[in-house]
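Q: Sequence in, structure out?
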Amino acid sequence: MWYAGNDGIRGHAGIGYAISTDGITWQKPSLRLISYGGSTDNNMVMTVGLPGSWDDLSVSMPCVLKEGETYKMWFTGNRADTWMIGYAASSDGIHWDEFAGNPIMVPGAYSWESTDIYGPTVVNDGSAYRMWYTGVAGYVDKIGYAYSNDGIVWTKHPDAVIPPSSSGWDAGETFLPFVLKTSTGFEMWYCGISGIDVWDNRMGYAISADGVNWAKKGIVLDHGSPGQDDDGALASPCVLREADGSLKIWYAGYHNYRIRILFASGAEVAQPGFTESYDGYASVDDATYRAVWTSWTPPVGYGQTSSTIVDGALRCEITNSWNTATAIGFDATHEVASDFSLEFDVADFNRGPGGPTLVEMAGIDFRSDGQNCYRLMIQYSQELDSFRDLLWKIPDRHSWPQHPSILASTPWISSSWPQSHHYKIECVGFSTMVWRDHSSVPIMTATDFSLLSGYIGTYFESGNGNDGPINAWTVLDNIHLERLPIQSWVKGGRAVNPGSAYPDWDSLGVAVCCVIHDDDGLYKMWYNAHDGAFANIGYAYSMDGLNWEKPNLGIVEYMGSTDNNIVITHGPSGSWKNLGAMGPYVIKDNGLYRMWYVGDGDHTLAIGYATSTDGIHWSDYPSNPVLSPGSFWWESTDVYGPCVVRDGSTLKMWYTGVEGYIDKIGYATSSDGVTWVKNAEPVLSLGPGWDAGEVFIPRVLKHGGAFEMYYSGISAIDVPDNKIGHAVSLDGLTWTKKGISISNGGPGDLDEREANSGCVILEADGSFRMWYTGKDAAGTNRVLWASLQMPTITALIDIKPGSYPNSINIGDIGAIPVAILGNPGLDVRQIDPSSVNLQGLHVKIVGKSGKYLAHYEDINGDGFTDLVVQIDDTDGVFVEGQMTAVLKAVLKNGQLVEGSDSVRVVPPNNPPS
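A: Exactly. Output:
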């Protein structure tokens, strides 16, 4: 252990070292390294710097990693009451060499950390060093994030990643994080206080898939009762996960103005998530945790059942025919808890032999004995011959609205609900884990949510209304029903055809396109074609995305003429692209068009880079290619099919790697688009099923904090049955497949043989468009298009909440407050504030950080959270008179939200009445 000590006299803080065999009883060895008070008989390993140095007042808050035979420490130094972060290394953990360029991080890069930075915690996840630290502006502490390739030069994230909450135990400040890497992302223990300078420190827990977007899960360790060593406050967690999954935590406890290091242990039931598949449909939506089954006993007299443990989860099947079935859950006897969900397709309930007739299938009844809990009942209209795969899942979700009364009546699904949709029940309000101190006395229990039963799960009800066992009841006080449309793409036909005839450079077929909807309103496409000898990249544009023009650009000579639309051509003999340039992917980045494309150099594929100011005239990077095969076994032959997304300060690439004849999808990151760091393993695995042979040419878009991939697959090597699939991810590394989006067509269709290489964009109206390559029966490739329209949600809005009539003075310049009112079918937290507009006017942006003037509150007192935005009205689109103003917004899943309210517009200098 490395820890900070303070003598309370000189204002001196140093870093000490201690050892233990059990983590509870510690010894401080006499190291005789550093003189203190005239003696070296102490356990100090680091002390303050010389007067005038960056750490001349104190050194404290160490974080140590051991990598190979080297110990690495990041710590806090203080000079003139300004805290900064430094670095040191050691071969034994005792003798430390400070980095000569300390400090490695200083405050001031962003406004929220302008005063101090301190308390680093560092993780090396194999691709980068990641640091979470506390930033201070004035008297407000927040938790920030940075990353580094070497642990010394750091790039900070511009915003705090764990800011204080709007209310509650951590509404004042958040500080002193500790982070561990998990199989699905990261988990953090951090400290918070309820108000600025309120001495009521508590410790909370949060999870994240990418280290930037965090879901807070509540308090896991509270300060002690009077007389205990942490009755004043607690801080500075350090957590260790043992091989058996148990957790140990060491933390600072405050009592009577003295600080001691205390210990607690914890056990968690939630385990890394997995995906169940039923009839080809992935049943879990971005789940990162699942609950563990320990046992299951069906009620007596309800037919023959069987259950098995599969990867720690219970699989139950009912083999006899009967009239009702069960919702399968998990054993929560160990005070589990986190958010969980149940997901299912309406179609999954039509499994009986009586045909597809659908009547009332499911309901949630309020329990009649006055206890505040619900039961879930699945009811069939016909005999059931088999039932399986309904699992309670614990997803990486948070901030769902808490409305215990919204499901007090049944049914919530009936024959009037569309059968082409997927439904989800989300429940919140359960603590994530329960910490116990060394004596095994519970420190924090689950009393917050009144766990009435130790079980969440099985409930049976027979045809005559007899209830099942009491342990089948489940507490579902806080519940949200979200209707999720299954993707149903509608094919629209041809977009770009091959050239009319030879010698047109693209007369043999066009393929593998990339489309952007540019700032000037034009759709712009880059695609490739092969003339039988060489491949080139061309350009087309469209006003509507459907009808495309191939302009004569006069840039590249082909067959003695520049009367063509080629923008990038193959290279000279012996070059990295001497046989062709193809597979373009373009982004527009701060006004610059950036393209990554594939070069064929004597039948070896590699990825190059080019830039342009207009999307037409391109300059190749002089040291192309920027990504070559051979780094890892699975991409030893070729790399091709790049797709690049900017995520903050990082460029993320997904690409196809080839080993022999097997194609798989890989991942790499870069800060400049030229130097890339590859992930060691492919990130999207093969089948089984329609994509069991190969997966290739990924196309990724990011929205709502998640990544969506459309990729091509075939069922077996060299079987030309290409289809386009869909997958989702929270971090771009761990993907959940969601099935086929575009299949190859039927006889006579333009994609009869193949459908692949789908490029997707999200439009402003919430719809999705895809341009993809279709191959007909004759083997000719064309660019085809398809669309996906998400259903529109109608919302109630209130312009100038609290006022009636809603009067606007067109002479005023400022912002118009508008509330989007939440309800059981609309979680306003899922609205992207940047998408909100009122009559075309958008949410006002303030400050250098570009923050939107938007916040959450229950503005009408109905118990549902509302989103209040300030619409920037400086453009003056309102005209005098009475009108209806229409608001539009887009949810993070792409659905369009619309609402309207009346407005009375008065002339300038005429104050509203």
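The chain has no helices and 69 strands.
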